[in-house]
Amino acid sequence: ITQPYNPAAAYSNSAYDLPNVFNVAFDYELPIGQGQLLSLPNRPLNSLLGGWQMSGVLNLRSGLPLSITQGLVSDLTNIGGGYAQTPNRLCGAKLSNPTEAQWFDTSCFVLPAQYTYGNAGRNILRGPAGPGTYNFSFMKNFSLYERLNLQYRADFFNTFNLAYPGNPNTTLGNPNFGQITGGSGGRTIQMALRLT
Fold first, then answer.
1. Between the ranges 49-53, 74-78, 162-166, where is the mean pLDDT highest?
2. Can you tell me whether residue 7 is helix, strand or coil?
3. For residues 180 and 100, what is the distance between their CA atoms, to the nearest angstrom?
4. Which phi-psi region, left, alpha or beta, contains residue 121 (left: φ > 0; alpha: ψ -120 to 50)?
5. Integer angstrom CA distances of residue 31 from 49, 92, 96, 150
């Protein structure tokens, strides 16, 4: 939101402000195979099932900040086009149990009087945090010759196939104002061979 004659309206948290972030990364060699906790009875089984590694990244975070704009009148303040203009905020707008059908209280926002700035400010609400990110990889190194190795790996992005809600519509006057109508998700699996 840029309002050249009202710089105080732009004072807020960054658009990328994340007050709560939890990240964990790990790498673990499975204790199977010769010389490990679970040694198998013959060499071919040890070669096939031993030496596997598992790694992963887990991420949990807060939702991103949201700015409310008005789209009913293109230049209500009469400062020229090209600037996002804000409505007036009448109440807090944060709901105790938000849903995708109503993420915030839309009745808290109204158009300001003509030739005046709205008081809604920038980045005053937060979008959904989502269920978190869970990515895992499994890999195994095969020693072919003294200086030749083959690595097989399988990567699972969004391992548990979770749905990630998008941000709600934040334009006053839009039929979907306050609603989450999109998102992302779907597991992605990729496999690779690497010869070194």
1. 162-166
2. helix
3. 5
4. left
5. 10, 54, 47, 20
